[in-house]
Amino acid sequence: MIGENGEQLGIMSSKDAYKLAREAELDLVKIAPTAKPPVCKIIDYGKYKYEMLRKEKEARKKQKSIEVKEIRMSPNIDDNDMNTKMNNARKFLEKGNKVKVTLRFRGREMAHMTQSKYILDDFAEKVSDIAVIDKPAKVEGRTLVLFLSAKK
């Protein structure tokens, strides 16, 4: 049992604890119900709930969510277009996001899937100074997919 000012009141029956809480016009709250014996505290429950919500909000503010940004290319991409896509990927990686690079195949391009894998390999090699490969290039339906994340 813990008093309203944080002092230890010792082990007592639940009736006595409830009586003390009523006298102080506060609530009896189980802080650690799984402990042997359970730990209870005399506090204002509304204030306690408010403090817990505030702590949760603070914890959520400090969390950083990582997004997965996608860069789409086709197998007949030109060098300048490739450089533009690489610059975009660099920006995403510098912000701490992961990058999903997809190489989309249409129609007759599907016959040359294996020859086009070098495009993703070159892409990964050119951004290797700030990125590492999370998942190597893999065929998923009509696309080749490569995942990159920022170096730590």
TrEMBL record:
Coiled coil: none annotated. The keyword Protein biosynthesis applies. It is found in: Cytoplasm. SUPFAM superfamilies: Translation initiation factor IF3, C-terminal domain, Translation initiation factor IF3, N-terminal domain. Gene3D superfamilies: Translation initiation factor 3 (IF-3), C-terminal domain (3.30.110.10), Translation initiation factor 3 (IF-3), N-terminal domain (3.10.20.80). GO terms for cellular component: cytosol; membrane. It holds the Pfam family IF3_C. Monomer. This is Translation initiation factor IF-3. The gene is infC.
